[in-house]
TrEMBL record:
SUPFAM superfamilies assigned to the protein according to its UniProt record, in alphabetical order: L domain-like (SSF52058), RNI-like (SSF52047), Toll/Interleukin receptor TIR domain (SSF52200)
Signal peptide (UniProt feature, chain positions): 1-21
Cellular component aspect of the GO annotation: membrane
Pfam families per UniProt: LRR_8, TIR_2
Record's protein name: TIR domain-containing protein
Membrane topology: Single-pass type I membrane protein
Keyword Signal found: yes
Amino acid sequence: MVISYRCLLLIFMEFMQINHAVICNIEDFQISCLRETCTDQIAFIKDNCPLELQKNYNCRGNNLTNVSEIERNVAYCSLDISRNWFEILHAGTFLQWTNLVALDLSNSHYLEVIDPDAFKGLQNLRYLNLKQSLTYKTFNRYQVPEAFRHLPELIILDITKNNIESYELIEKTVRHTRKLKYLALEGCPSCTFGPEFATLKQLIALDQTVEEEWCYCFIEILSDNYFQNLQFLKFLYLSDCRIKTISPQAFVPLSQIELLDLSYNYNLTFDRAMIGLQGLRNATSLRTLKLNFLHPLLQGHSVTIKKEHITFLSNLNVEELHLEGNKLDVFEYGVLSALPDTIKTVNLRHNRLAIDNYLDEFFDSNRTLKHLKVLDISYQNSAIGSYSPNKLSEKKKKLKRRDTMFTFLVKLFKTFVAEVALPPRLENITCLNMGWNFLVPEINVSPSNSIKNLDFSVNGLHTWIGPVNGLNQLENLSLANNFCNNISDVFFSTFKGLKRLSIQGNLLGVVLERDSDGIIFSSLKSLQYLDISSNQISKLPPRIFQHMVSLEELIISYNMLSKFEIDVLTMTKLTNIDMSYNKIETLPNSLTHHMDRIAKNNHVVINLSGNPISCTCENIEFLRWMMETNVQLKYDSVCSHQTKMDTAEKLRSLEKECTSKVGLIAGCIAFIVLAFAVIFGGIIYRYKWHLRYLYYSARNSVGIRHHGEDYTELYQYDSFISYAEEDKPFVYNGILPEIEEKFGLRLCIADRDFTPGVSVPENIIRAISSSRRAIFVLSHSFLDSYWCKYELNMVRIEAEKKNRKFVIVVMYEYVSNDELPLDIMEVIRSQTYIDYPDDEMAREAFWRRLKETID
């Protein structure tokens, strides 16, 4: 007798199964399910499982070929044997699993035979997942429908991703599962729900969505009789089903429907969807309607929502309306008023909304959307901009191009205060990535509003002026990633009840460093969470957060802080500080002691990851604190390259190294001397130009007093000319002939008018003090000249000390902003500058303007 290799292998495997049963993982009770309705059913299943059995026996992906390989007599409620290689489910396969309420057989790619008694013993089973497990051959066997007669309590069945071409066998299968509530079943072009489905009176959820490239829902046409045997449905998911047409009567049988999802049917289009949805006009139970992305992504024109589109909604009680990604441009006037008052959530993300008169209707809180709570209009292809119904409705007709809108708004808000009325129950507004690029002016919001959450992140709101009045219930505000570099002292002054503030990803380093008295955040006494990460902050004043007595979490990560100097003594509730990825080497005792006090009764976390913790004698106290504190510390390493495991050993080594008294005394003396030297040097460096100016001014006794711009006193020169040696031809061949010879003005030129035998600095001071104006010939050579920079700084100090505005900058050569030092940038921003033209025809006007500026 010839025994095949396959038979020998099967005999060997059977022997191995008898002697070596597979032991799987035991984990908490869990069943995967995407839809919220299915999740609700899973909660019900768990509640019907005895507490002592609420565990999941997980044999997922163990390369099993037979269920008998699994350890026997395991009493748990859930069994996961997905992603294995079962070919046959024999009779009585699950007789030892009588307590099962959930069975996952998904992704059993080679399952060809299911015996009619395979599920015998599973009389308590509520959940069965056969996703991607049944081949066409399997489902065309009579055994599959008969096997389900052993599952009388089944309420969730998932048989998607099985390339089903007809519902005939499905109908024979579900006739045994009268308690079925949730059915996941892919759609196909010629499939219909037969009379047996009408007997499933508890079937409330049908999910025909399949999220796979090779296996998908393909319905194309929803005919008049498609749902005639599914009249008990409450939740219907038809997203991404390639639907092109919906009959006006298709949804008529669904009088009990509560949720309908038609999203991602890209060829349906908004207009055809609205025609098909007319069948819902009597579906008074409908609460959620999802109509996202009904157009091809890269084709089609903008869509206007008309009143005729939404007539079917007028008598319904819809609470959620999702219209994301439909290329919506405007709403016809009257549409918003026609929407049912029951609407609480509106999602209009990824559209093209533009300013139009429908905004007047939206802001009329007495007529529209009285119960609206959530509004999301993020990611609009065209910016909406700020809106004032009193002012913009009169001005908008004058806007001929969209790129002029922002300029107009900025000018408008410099003159007017924006007045805004909102739906009375609106709590959440989200406006992410709108393309806005303007300042936030003072805004008065109608005090009858209920706004709690505002998210205007990822825009270009570069200046926050405010205040924003009327948002008395605001709790969460996000202005992250707006490229903002300026906040007024009063912008946050009206947000008394604010609890969470996210302003990360801006450019607030300079403005926060200047707020030494903590005025900007002084009104935020209720704030619990503050995120100012990624703001290019190099220093924060100690008192900047002194008024935040309720702060619990502070995020200052991804900045350039080298020291933590913030006074935290008033923050008695602070339990989480994230200062990761800065340049911090140590923390002050005031902070560590304060956090230790809080840690006695609370869980406290400080994140120091990405900071170069210093290992020196001066820092030994902080290192010791790191080892002893009850505060949970997060850090990568200390001493630059040491690991966490080396920290304790390094500390012991440092303690020995730093105990020498001589070394300690010498170190203290050296430290004191160095500190004084650094401080004195810093003062000298900080005021070096002032000191030079005072020194040479004292030596220079010109005896002329200046009083601002009062030129009743006589000056020896009309203007002092500062220029680089390389630009001398321009001065002698251009400025002197045109200004001095032609217009008769007296100029001070270093090469000609400086007094011999007197030091250059003293000559410069004399020339500046004796001139009504100072002209700087700006060029690349000017930037490279030491004496030109010297003259510039002396003029700046002269202007500051004597309150004179007498600087004129001639842009002789084009110099980009990146090449200009900060001091020159400051002069250009605050003083007069004139561009020297390349065109000879324009130079006569240039000389005339320069002469008038000097005068």
